Amino acid sequence: MQEFSVLLYYIYSPIENVVEYRDIHHQFCLDNELLGRIIVAPEGLNGTVSGTKENCEAYMKWVKSDPRFTTIDFKVEKHEGHAFKKLYVRIKKEIVHSELPVDPRIQTGKHLEPAEFKQMLNDEDVVLVDMRSNYEHNVGRFKGAVTFDMENLRELPDHMHEIEHLKNKKVITYCTGGIKCEKASAYLLQQGFENVYQLHGGIIKYGLEEGGENFDGKCYVFDGRLTTDVNKVNPEVISTCHVCGEKCDRMVNCANPECNEHMPMCEKCGEEMEGACSAECKEHPKKRPYDGTGYYQKDKTGYKPEIAARTRKNTKKLHIVEKLGLCE
What we know:
By secondary structure, the chain is α/β, with parallel strands linked by helices. Among the domains are: 4-95, Alpha-Beta Plaits; 110-217, Rhodanese-like domain (Oxidized Rhodanese, domain 1, 3-Layer(aba) Sandwich), CATH 3.40.250. Helices cover 26% and strands 21% of the residues. The chain is globular and about 50 Å long.
């Protein structure tokens, strides 16, 4: 039986030729049977990729061979197969959509390696701040962490008043893989916080290197697994089934695509509700077939998974995209 891996990574490093690089990167993934979601932006790379252990190792070596990405940090998890059903390599304006007026290459919070982070947890002057969306920290978070009721990082400025009183504390930000904290911690510094740190490599790296102690629940991930185990020391389930209220850390997306709510749901309720969050969603005419996982690949209308020769019209269009820094 073949071994598979799931890779999580990002790097802030300028990419001038985003259209050309996107095509080269996409073709390498196709040639090496890799699946996942990768963002190419003028500010850098961000991706989650799955494939055989051998193909993932070839991918990591290939990415790091580019002088722009030699310092990239890959988080590697074992898996029983592909964590994705398709491959997308897309051009975006940012590698994580934030719209925050910061550049983490100029200023960002001090990086803490997992071992340093674990040691600082014993400091009474430390406050942990979760920079993820509400549905993510609802299923898993560090003990005592400050959380925000926000859908995405763009909303962070609206929640700054909630932590204004912590400016004299040592603030450590954290997220899934570290990418959001690069900009979030930079924004905190811009807003007058002085002692700002971030967990380098995020929750995933902390789990891999330090056993995940004091992380309650599971970590939400953006692939077919939906959640992954982090804490091997003192795990605790903190979320409850959306339907029956029993303790449950099994996440699903509502089968109604017009709802698509992220929520915990036990297997029994998942079967009874056919993956829907409510009776209304269960009867919705567009409800997707429930396969027991609650994971549905996003429909990227117009996206071509294979790279073919581009027409002059398409080439011109993509170079306009590159120039403006818009989504493909």
